[in-house]
Amino acid sequence: MAYTVPKLTDYSAESLLKTFGHAKLALRDELHEVTSESEWKAVRDRWMARKNGVLTQINDQLRTAPKDAKRDFGQYLNELKQYVSQEIEGWNRFVENAPGGLAGSLGSVDISLPGIRRPIGAEHPILKTSREMCAVFQRLGYSIAEGPVIETDYYNFEALNFPPNHPARDTQDTLFIAGQSSKPQRERLLLRTHTSPVQIRTMEKIRPPIRIVIPGTVHRNDPPDASHSPMFHQIEGLAVDTNITFGDLKGTLDHAMKEFFGSSVKTSFRPSFFPFTEPSAEMFVSCFICGGSGRRESGPCRPCKQTGWIEILGCGMVDPNVFEFVKDNGYDPRKVSGFAFGMGADRIALLKYGVDDLQLFFNGDVRFLQQWA
Ligand SMILES: [Zn+2]
Fold first, then answer.
1. Residues 90-101: pLDDT tens digits?
2. Distance of CA 91 from the midpoint of ligand 1 (Å)
3. Cα of 285 from ligand 1 centre, angstroms
4. How many Cα neighbours within 13 Å face the side chain of 27?
5. How many other β-carbons are positioned within 10 Å of the β-carbon of residue 123?
6. Cα separation, 90 vs 79, whole angstroms
7. d(Cα 12, Cα 69) in Å, to the nearest integer?
8. Which residues of 256-279 are buried (b: 16+ CB within 10 A; e: fewer)?
9. How many angstroms is it from 371 CA to the middle of ligand 1?
10. Which helix (H) or strand (E) holds 16?
11. Closest Cα to residue 215, out of 315, 126, 150, 134?
12. How far apart are CA 198 and CA 276, in angstroms?
């Protein structure tokens, strides 16, 4: 129904707010009903015509308004004028840009005009790195598995052999969801600190043997700087079967690194500790930037700190305690064994593309991102 301008008697701030608010809603309703250009023109004329248009009628009331209300009234009116022209012109732009159907039926398309140029997006360098790394494992028969970013304490810690109050929890600066203290600890929600909960979730659903890679975002309470971010990306892997050995782990990861970084890289495993693997190791690859020499033509090689080796991932044999949590689905630690590994996609992207500041990946500067388009 067409809007009629009410005769104002109450000029209080509250009444003005209400009146002008009603006018805006009425215009939106009228535009909502519009289906053709002639209907649109009718709405435009009713609201914007100099002679007796809605805006003019309201303007006339400004003249008769009491002195002390004129300033507020004027401000509301200006704002309404802007709103009306924006909404009405905006609808017109929408019609002009509409593909085929609506605009075509209005007969307003000038086919001699250049088309609308839509910038073509490109894969973000971190997602590209992640996808390429996952593809290496997919060619080995691994499947992609994914899981929620908001996790329970149980999946993020307990079932991965981080018992409550275990000091290993302190190494992961966890972001907890507020207002959870009334829940039992294992049900409390947090932002997952690693992609490892997906290991448990997948083992709960799928019986052995399994081979999965898990890409995804994780969060930790790390202030952003050149090499840290409160949000970053991991790629995790898990293989479980009968008779999986540390030899399988080394062979698989050595092959994957040669596929990803080039056949000349070497791998080196050094003992480490993670609660969910035993034994655990950190894996280094020979520096693919300086060829392992620690030096470049321009001077010392910074990415490998002149050691010739770059730490890429953590790995190990799945701790039997982890299998205990999914024992009922066929993961009897006396019958199956497996290995797991996890790496940071962001760090690998930094190294691969020679970027020296992690924040560049996340601050959305198109000039930076266009280099990968
Ligand atoms: Zn190097």
1. 877 666 555 544
2. 58
3. 10
4. 26
5. 14
6. 16
7. 7
8. bbbbbbeeebebebeeeebbbbee
9. 24
10. helix 13-33
11. 134
12. 13
